[in-house]
Amino acid sequence: MAFPSHGTTHRSTVTGTRGMVTSAHPLASLAGARMLLAGGNAFDAAVAVASTLNVVEPYMSSIAGNGYMLLYSAKEKTHRVLDYMGTAPYAATLDAFPTLESQQVGIRAGMVPGGCGGWLALLERYGSMHRADIFAPAIESAENGYAVTVKNAEFIAGAQPYFSPKAEEVIASRGRTPRPGEVLVQKDLAQTFRQVVEGGAEAFYQGDIAKEIVRFSEKTDGLITQKDLTDFEVQWQEPVSITYKDYEVYCPPPPCSGFQYLETLNILENDELGALGHNSAEYLHLLIEAIKLASADRAEHAPHPNPPIERLLSKGYARTQRGRIGEQAAVSGGERWTKDKLPGEIRTNDWTTECTTHFDTADAAGNIVAVTQSLGQPFGSGVILGSTGMFLNNFMNWFDRSPESPNAVGPHKRIEMCMSPCQVWKGGTPFAAIGTPGSHGILQTTLQMVLNLIEHGMNIQAAIEAPRIRLVNPGTHVSVEGRIPVAVRAALEARGHDVEVLPNWTATVGGGHGIAFEPAEGSFMGGADPRRDGYAIGV
């Protein structure tokens, strides 16, 4: 079966036969393509992309950030998850955070960095190239600088109020944040990458980099200690999956909350969604109401150590949930756990601001990597860790302040996390690798892109570009991109939905990237989101 042509695209589609890389910045995608052209595999390309994104999208992810990889090893014929989310420091207690701001900005806002451990664990197990070659593009861009894009400039300027003095010195070296076309240099970060190339994870977690992290943390009243760094471990896991009609859909297991979109797919499985028409009022109403139900389950269960995933993803439970959807909009909460429940309300809680990135790599041998990684909010904590050039994440902000919450701040604790790369297979062969940033909207945007592929027959670029919706606020509120027709919006309002119209193209609904596969031809099609600086490169 050939790739579908359905779907108008703002950008042309990208194809390849030797491999495909798609990410949120052209230089990062080029870094991955360089690895493939040099004879490397998808795993080498993934780390080249991840490290280069640290440089050219410094507000989105970092070697001192955290994330998840969902991968398929052609040699092992296995799907695996690499969880490189850090934990809270051992000293993290509610008393250590007297204000909400102390969880959001500053040295105490950071969880233990997992980026370095995750990248190097992938290379140790599956990589084929030398670290020096893989990190070379990132080092080049950091040492010599890269030209800032329009979107770079917008994100950087918006985050400047949270910069530490060192961050001001590096990112705003001109006395202001860089403008489009100006070159941003990060020499300290380049040197840190060189140390990682030479010394590996030991250099980062126990060697000179670790010493500088701990020195700076102690000097600035931070919580991260040498024990926190020494005790960090990545986790190799089995993914969770469901069947959706003729497809198998995979995502990381809890505490990753990707099971929300798996549950939503289950709820909708027996509806003829394609026949309803893409983004028709009937289609969107079903989608919105199913999202509310699955989101409430995620908010309630994901923070617990052992959520009832088997029950939540059972087909019988999905049928029960489908029966709860009526003709009118139901009332929901926000997006996180809350103590108080209101009668008749489908519960969730508030939207957490985040800055995240997603990318995918694939090679001709059949290896596939889908990665979502983040700093938390823009530039994370706003703090550069001493002389390392690394921005520290602010994932302590994702813990709840209520001691009654299962997701409350606690020592050496893991968090419920919405980052959730996805892979879709059909008949034992790959169909798509896809994902997006967007806070808890990840669990809604990924769903919409997957349905665009499966139910609406779109090609990967069209599936990513298509207008999206986003449920953020409590009540019956739904945000829709302005490209969704006025008549559809009016019909949704007639069903009780409180419709907010967003710009035609907005990062509020994420920044998706993905790869579609044609196994019979040995070819790939890559898609990248014009809502950000995304580019796909096929080789």
Q: How would you describe this structure to a colleague?
A:
The chain has 539 residues and is of the alpha+beta class. It has two domains: 230 residues, no CATH class; 228 residues, Gamma-glutamyltranspeptidase, small (S) subunit (Glutamine Phosphoribosylpyrophosphate, subunit 1, domain 1). 35% of the residues lie in helices and 19% in strands. Strands 1-20-19-15-14-9-8 form a seven-stranded antiparallel β-sheet. It has a seven-stranded antiparallel β-sheet with strand order 7-4-3-13-12-2-21, covered by helices on one side. About 1% of the residues have low confidence.
Spell out the key features of this protein:
539 residues; 35% helix; alpha+beta; globular; Glutamine Phosphoribosylpyrophosphate, subunit 1, domain 1
Short summary:
The chain is of the alpha+beta class and 539 residues long. The protein has helices at 26-37, 42-56, 100-104, 115-126, 131-144, 150-159, 165-171, 187-205, 208-219, 226-230, 259-268, 273-276, 281-301, 309-312, 315-322, 442-454, 460-465, 486-494, and strands at residues 14-16, 19-23, 66-73, 78-83, 146-147, 183-184, 235-237, 240-244, 247-251, 332-334, 346-349, 355-363, 368-376, 422-426, 429-435, 469-470, 477-481, 498-502, 513-518, 523-528, 535-538.
